[in-house]
Design goal:
With about 200 residues, this protein is mostly helical. Helices cover about 50% and strands about 5% of the residues. It has seven helices and two strands, in the order ααααααββα. It has a two-stranded antiparallel sheet with strand order 1-2. It is globular, with a radius of gyration of 18 Å.
Length: about 200
């Protein structure tokens, strides 16, 4: 099975058939898709200016979408490297029990669903790399009360998400499943209460 870099080379290769180049970009999302496969595809298409169902997009637009995905992947890989080094040091220092950020991180290793969007048509509009930088910054500071990506305060607890965890606080503004470790206990409680109010 081809890796991300091999697929990226095919997307860029003008000697490849356009259908293969588009297919290779879609396959890249099996390796790295911060919002999940469908939402990340919708995001890349809208930002690069071609339709999700467009079978023959402008090759330059395909490459633009790939470049955005690669920039985000670089941000995430740097975070994973730092995370691995930190855990090694903590283990060396005798801290064997991982924290809540570590529990969350295990579910997102490799970058799939880091900022999960259950509705593929509702996702942040900012570049993927910027979204991941904001999310990582939130993971590295004290828990807050709003969405780390868009600053939205309308967090609603949703069940039955097509992701693990299958329930959690979803930002009503940008659509991401907000990682629990970035939210204070009060914010989590408020999101659960919003769920109850909406279902009443």
């Amino acid at each position: 099975m081809a890796g991300f870099r091999s697929l990226a080379r095919q997307v860029r290769d003008p000697g490849c058939d356009l259908a293969l180049r588009r297919y290779s970009l879609r396959k890249c999302l099996e390796k790295f898709a911060p919002y999940g496969h469908r939402a990340t595809w919708d995001h890349l298409c809208s930002r690069a200016g071609f339709g999700p169902e467009d079978r023959s997009p402008d090759p330059a637009r395909l490459v633009a979408a790939l470049e955005e995905l690669e920039a985000a992947r670089d941000v995430w890989l740097a975070y994973e490297t730092d995370f691995t080094e930190r855990r090694k040091k903590e283990k060396h220092d005798g801290l064997r029990r991982p924290g809540s950020v570590d529990d969350w991180h295990r579910l997102t290793w490799g970058g799939f669903g880091v900022a999960w969007c259950d509705d593929p048509l509702v996702h942040p509009g900012a570049p993927l790399a910027e979204v991941l930088r904001r999310l990582i910054a939130a993971l590295e500071r004290e828990p807050g009360s709003c969405c780390p990506v868009c600053g939205g305060e309308r967090l609603v607890w949703r069940y039955g998400l097509d992701h693990e965890p299958s329930s959690g606080p979803v930002c009503a503004d940008c659509g991401i499943l907000v990682p629990r470790p970035v939210l204070s206990p009060q914010a989590l409680q408020f999101a659960r209460r919003e769920r109850l109010l909406m279902s009443a």
